[in-house]
Amino acid sequence: MNKQLKFITRTVFAMFIALFFSVTMIQFVNADELRANELNMRTVKNSYKVERGSILVDGDPVAYSTPTDDSYRYVRQYEPGALYAPVTGYFSHSQGMTGLEAAMNQELSGIGNAQFFTRIQNTLNGVDPQGSSVQTTIDPRVQEAAAAAMADGGFEGAVVAIEPKTGRILALVSTPSFDPNLLSSNSNADIIANYRQLEEDPSRPLQNRAIAGDLYHPGSVYKLLVAAAAIENGDATPTTEYENPAQLTLPQSTSVMQNASRTACGSGAKATLEQAIMLSCNIPIAELAMSMDRDAVPAMARAFGFEQDLTVPLAVTQSVSPVPEDKAQTALASIGQLDVRVTPLQMAMVSAGIANGGTVMKPTVVDQVITPDLRVETQVSPEEFSKPISKKTADAVAGMMEKGVSSSEGLAQKSGIDGVRVAGKTGTAENGTDASGNDLPFTLWYTGFAPVDDPEIAVAVVIEDGGGEAYGYTGSSFDLPTAVGKRVMEAVLSE
Question: Which residues form the Penicillin binding protein A dimerisation domain (predicted)?
Fold first, then answer.
């Protein structure tokens, strides 16, 4: 009998210990993570009892709460909604939350650890709870210029602009966008109907193309990483020459590579690395990549941020640059094809790192967190993300990019700004064929920075489907995104 009682006692004690451990993990260790989870509907519902803090752009609220007469007490409003939707996301009591609404939920709803004593003080004083506001790094003139440039062309794609010296994100645009007000009313029926309509829209407005969603082949903008790896590792200089055929049969393959021009890279028997970047030639870049270790370029890509976890604090999908299996794959990967995939934010980071003398700053869209009594609760300071290349290498790559703009032959010349030294690189990515064997529309790229001598902005622009129906799905790589990039850079330089 005593043996049985001992067994039952020990079992109950073990169960008590397990329960105690579980409760401790939930209520203390994992509490913040569970509260911040966008699927935690209790957090969302509790947040409607609080006057949620505003999301600010240049001090003006673009997301804010207003009182209502219903049981929710407040309703979330966005103005102008679609312009800042890729930044703010939405806050909805039937569809959860996205964007900064999710990433900064604890601060906005007043439940963060930093606000613990404020909550106690407000409770003792009978003050209604209120969340802190989040000041973003977004520059309204740059955001508006980027969105307008994409809208004027009717483009689907994204624009990211970064301040190279600090990592501050000046613009984060994804088109087409959506109006978060459609998902933030206090009518669940309306929210569900609106969400279903947005989700079924073939243009995918809910997808944040700037930092997530389907990744893009980078095409020729990836050649900047090939050049950076070669120069940094001592395998080449801008004046290093390569064989200059009009066609190149890839090793151990029947596949033939050509330059976009379908001719040789310039008029000479050989072409320099500088010419290959300036004229965006495929064959010299492929020859260079095949002469290096297969991991050299992917390693450089990882140093710039590929395949690394990154939050800004919005979650960013990892860009990928796998190690090629052979020289043929190395050649194709070197021109931004094969399995190489990127976000526009990642390509903006590449240009920003080159502009900043080889140092990549951690990108961020949050500047400050401000309490309801207007105290700065958190100030986000510039933080180094990585230093993938030396200043000497950065200057060499920047010089080649500048030639791409300043030279009469350069494919990025349309991004030139009078009186300003601009560095730029275009790109056209092929996307394979459809079921009938027809080529799919190209993805068009531009990335660059200005001024070269004292960089204030680095930008990446991606345009899907060759510019879309208005351009017959075959738009020029150096016309459409380059013009967008120029307008975005001008918005900063004209301030």
Answer: 52-134
Confidence of residue 1 (pLDDT cuts 50, 70, 90): low
Is 220 considered catalytic here?
A: yes
Q: Which long-range contacts (CB under 8 A, 24 or more apart) does 407-411 make?
A: 407/278, 409/278, 409/279, 410/278, 410/279, 411/278, 411/279, 411/280, 411/477, 411/478
Token look-up 């935690």 returns: 40
Taking only the tens place, the pLDDT of each residue in 419-462 is: 999 999 999 999 887 888 888 899 999 999 999 999 999 999 99
pLDDT at 246: 95
Q: Rounded CA gap, 208 and 222, in Å? A: 21
Share of the chain above pLDDT 70, in %: 90
Each residue's pLDDT tens digit, 302-336: 999 999 999 999 999 999 999 999 999 999 999 99
Condensed to tens digits (0 to 9), the pLDDT of residues 190-216 reads: 999 999 999 999 999 999 999 998 899
In this structure, what token pair is assigned to residue 467? 């510019």
Query: Residue 84 CB: number of other CB atoms within 10 A?
Result: 26
Amino acid at the residue 350: V
- For the whole model, what pTM was predicted? 0.89
Among the options 54, 92, 184, 220, which is catalytic?
220
How far apart are alpha carbons 133 and 371 in whole angstroms? 6
**Which token pair is 261?**
């021009």
Backbone angles phi, psi at 22, to 5 degrees: -65, -45
Cα(363)–Cα(233) distance, rounded to whole angstroms? 26
- CA distance linking residue 426 with residue 356, whole number of Å: 20
Strand ranges for 331-434 from DSSP E: 360-361, 366-370, 376-379, 384-386, 423-429
pLDDT of the residue at 176: 97
**CA 119/CA 96 separation, integer angstroms:** 24
Sheet holding 443-450, edge to edge: 169-175, 157-162, 457-463, 443-450, 423-429
Distance between start and end Cα atoms, the chain? 87
**HSE-CB for 6 with a 13 A CA cutoff:** 3
Q: Do the Cβ atoms of 89 and 97 come closer than 8 Å? A: yes
Retrieve residue 112's tokens.
């963060």
CA 372 – CA 119 distance, rounded (Å): 11
74 touches 108 (CB < 8 A): no
At 223-276, the pLDDT tens digits run 999 999 999 999 999 999 999 999 999 998 889 999 999 999 998 999 999 999
Residue among 439, 429, 456 nearest 352 (CA): 456
Query: Phi, psi at residue 206, to the nearest 5°?
Result: -80, -10
**Residues 475/463, Cβ–Cβ less than 8 Å:** yes
